C-alpha cells in the first residue's frame, strides 16, 4: 500500500513538472515589447549652450529603451571637439551603434544615428533631398528570438519642397524592407496636418499621434514621430513625450511596440 502511494505521488510530481515545462516554454516564446526612443540631440548641445553627451545618455537611459533613433549627430567635427558621438553614446548606454552621414561638416560628418541592444546584421544610408542634403539610416537587426526587424532614423528638410520630395524615396526604402516588420522614426520638420505626414500616415501606423515635441520649453506642436509598419505586424502598447527641456532643443519620444 505504501509503495502504491509513493508511485502515485511520483507520477503526480512528474506530470506537474511536464506541465510546468510546457507553460515555461510557451511563455519564453512570447515576443517581448520593444521600447523605441527617438531624439533629435542637437549635436549634444543643450538649451543652456552646454555640450554634454553624458546628459544626453542619461536622458536615453532613463527610458530603458531597446532601440534608439537619433538625429543631428556629429562625428569628429570641429564644433564638438573631434569626438565620435555615436561611439561615446554607445559606450554610455551599453548598446550597439550605427551612423549614416547626411553631409560632411567641419572636418567630420553629420547625420543620423541608431543605438540598439540587438545585434546589427546590416545597415544602409539612403540620401534624401533638401537645400541641405538629408538622409535616412536603415538598420536590420536580430531580436532575441532570432526574428529580424528594420529600424530607420531620418531627418527631413527644413523647407517644404525638400520634405515633399522625400516622400517618393522614403516609399522606395519602405518597399526595400516590406518583408520585415519596420519602424521609421525621426525629426520630420512637418506638423501632423501637413501633406508629408498625411502621406506617411497612409503608408504606416503613426504611434505618436498628438505627442507634442517642439518647441522644447513649452511644446505646442509636433514635428518628431515614431511610425511602424501595419497593424498586422505591430500593436502599440503605449507612447509618450519625456519631460526633458534642457538637454536638446527637441523633446524625446518613447513608444512601446509589440510584434504580433
Which class best fits the helix and strand makeup?
A: alpha+beta
User: Which CATH first-tier class of the largest domain would you pick?
Assistant: Alpha Beta
Radius of gyration: 22 Å
Could you name the CATH homologous superfamily of the largest domain?
A: Endonuclease/exonuclease/phosphatase
Q: Largest sheet at a glance?
A: 6 strands, mixed
Strand content: 25-35%
Strand order of the largest sheet: 3-4-2-1-12-11
Q: How many strands in all? A: 12
For this structure, the CATH topology of the largest domain is Deoxyribonuclease I, Chain A
Low-confidence stretches: 21-28
Helix fraction by DSSP (H/I, runs of at least 4): 25-40%
Residue-averaged pLDDT? 92
Shape: globular
Task: Give the terminus-to-terminus CA distance.
Answer: 52 Å
CATH architecture descriptor name of the largest domain: 4-Layer Sandwich
Protein name: Endonuclease/exonuclease/phosphatase family protein
Keywords: Endonuclease, Hydrolase, Nuclease
Pfam family, one: Exo_endo_phos
GO molecular function: endonuclease activity
Amino acid at each position: 500500500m505504501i509503495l502504491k502511494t509513493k508511485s502515485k505521488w511520483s507520477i503526480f510530481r512528474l506530470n506537474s513538472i511536464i506541465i510546468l515545462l510546457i507553460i515555461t516554454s510557451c511563455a519564453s516564446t512570447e515576443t517581448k515589447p520593444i521600447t523605441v526612443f527617438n531624439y533629435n540631440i542637437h549635436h549634444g548641445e543643450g538649451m543652456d549652450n552646454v555640450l554634454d553627451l553624458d546628459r544626453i545618455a542619461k536622458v536615453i537611459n532613463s527610458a530603458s529603451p531597446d532601440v534608439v533613433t537619433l538625429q543631428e549627430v556629429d562625428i569628429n567635427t570641429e564644433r564638438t571637439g573631434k569626438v565620435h558621438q555615436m561611439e561615446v553614446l554607445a559606450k554610455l548606454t551599453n548598446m550597439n551603434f550605427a551612423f549614416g552621414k547626411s553631409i560632411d561638416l567641419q572636418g567630420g560628418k553629420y547625420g543620423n544615428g541608431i543605438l540598439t541592444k540587438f545585434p546589427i546584421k546590416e545597415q544602409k544610408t539612403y540620401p534624401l533631398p533638401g537645400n541641405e542634403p538629408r538622409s535616412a539610416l536603415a538598420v536590420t537587426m536580430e531580436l532575441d528570438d532570432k526574428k529580424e526587424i528594420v529600424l530607420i532614423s531620418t531627418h527631413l528638410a527644413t523647407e517644404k519642397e525638400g520634405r515633399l520630395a522625400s516622400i517618393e524615396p522614403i516609399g522606395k526604402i519602405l518597399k526595400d524592407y516590406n518583408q520585415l516588420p519596420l519602424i521609421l522614426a525621426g525629426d520630420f520638420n512637418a506638423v501632423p496636418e501637413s501633406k508629408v505626414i498625411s502621406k506617411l500616415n497612409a503608408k504606416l501606423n503613426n504611434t505618436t499621434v498628438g505627442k507634442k515635441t517642439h518647441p522644447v520649453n513649452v511644446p505646442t506642436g509636433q514635428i518628431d514621430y515614431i511610425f511602424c509598419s501595419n497593424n498586422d505586424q505591430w500593436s502599440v502598447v503605449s507612447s509618450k513625450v519625456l519631460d526633458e527641456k534642457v538637454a536638446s532643443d527637441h523633446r524625446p519620444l518613447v513608444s512601446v511596440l509589440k510584434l504580433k
